[in-house]
């Protein structure tokens, strides 16, 4: 299973999911501070 090459669509899907995963943790504090400004 691990020695087989990865198919073409799975590489793009993995890269997109990786970017969105790390962007969530980078953008979450900024969005929470922005949300607090909207609430007040």
From TrEMBL:
The chain crosses the membrane at residues 12-35. It comes from the Eukaryota. InterPro entries: Cyt_b/b6_C, Cyt_b/b6_C_sf. Coiled coil: none annotated. Keywords: Electron transport, Membrane, Mitochondrion, Transmembrane, Transmembrane helix, Transport. GO terms for molecular function: electron transfer activity; oxidoreductase activity. It is found in: Membrane. Residues 1-40 form the Cytochrome b/b6 C-terminal region profile domain. It is a multi-pass membrane protein. GO terms for cellular component: membrane. The keyword Nucleotide-binding does not apply. Signal peptide: none annotated. SUPFAM superfamilies: a domain/subunit of cytochrome bc1 complex (Ubiquinol-cytochrome c reductase). Its main location: membrane. The keyword Transmembrane helix applies. One of its GO terms (biological process) is electron transport chain. This is Cytb protein. It comes from Allacma gallica. The gene is cytb.
């Amino acid at each position: 299973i691990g020695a087989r090459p990865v198919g073409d669509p799975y590489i793009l899907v993995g890269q997109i999911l990786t970017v969105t995963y790390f962007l969530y943790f980078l953008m979450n504090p900024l969005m929470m501070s922005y949300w607090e400004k909207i609430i007040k």
